[in-house]
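Issue: copy button drops trailing tokens. Both records pasted manually instead:
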Amino acid sequence: MSNEMNATVRKLSASASVIDIHGDITAQAEESLMAAYSQASQGNTKTIILNFEGLDYMNSSGIGLLVTMLIRVQRQKQRLLAFGLSEHYQQIFELTRLNEAIAIYDDETAAVTAVAAPA
């Protein structure tokens, strides 16, 4: 059943990047996810937006990877936003309180608009 995760990085502006996630976020995704984060963080990046529209599955190890990424983002004084989460994963973000640390938006337009607003 395992769908290997791949992540692509898009630079929105000098200070914002989007990581498009496709497939499953499990322990196997760590290398791809952290490589995408490193790529997204290059230069003067202040905001990283996670696009979960292509997410097929995420387990507790995947949640752990997001927490690891969140810690790195906070250390770099960056912001982490997300969009495209299904209702199921929005509930998981609420249960794990990830939604308190990662702002969740309905779509890319809303997330990009939030980037333009002061933190």
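Record 2 (pasted manually too):
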Amino acid sequence: MDKFSLFVPNFLPCREYFDPGNNNACPGCGLALGVRHVYKAADKAMEKALWENISDTKFFGIKTNPSLLKIKQKKNELIICLDNEAGGSLRDALKKQMPGMAVAEGFKYVATACPSYPFDLYDKVKKALDTEGKSYIHILCPCPEGWQFDPENSVKAGFSAVETLAFPLYEAVCGFYTLTVKTAKPKKLSDYITIQGRFSGVTDSEIAEAGAIVDKEYSKLLEKIQSSYSYTFETTGKVY
């Protein structure tokens, strides 16, 4: 038994809102696991939640077809995108534009999350529901069938996405960015790509190009984080 299976059930709330027996999720479904954690974090707020299907439409000006969960309360609205990258290309898998678009549109709280990091996901849903105004969380949900890997490796696939910097975990509060999970020694992007059968035809040169995309996107993120730190220090004299 891995550490994930051993410790997570002991620290997240016991009450279950998601019944795996009453849905058509495949074995090892990352989306189902993400939904389960979201439901636990949202708790009674789930009574006001609505699922929205935006297949073949544009979301934040981007043509996509993710699963969206919306939770409206008196002082806030939370939009959660559960992204299993259905039908996406390698480039689509590495360039997640929607969180940045949400920040640009003035969302007060924006974050990325993954069910492989349940406590990070849980905390972000809680923060979003406590934030006045609009919030957005983009959750990467490894899909065994779509990505073509062994269902037992769903959690490991999520770890790999984060550890190779393909999907960094961060939050932006009123436009100020912070990494929530830091990777001291990033792993090679090829480690993430090659575990997915859907990319079995990708060449070494394409992997190198993908690596350049990841490096560029991560550098942009670090610049935003540094700017946030600099502004905070200049205005308050403190770094939080």
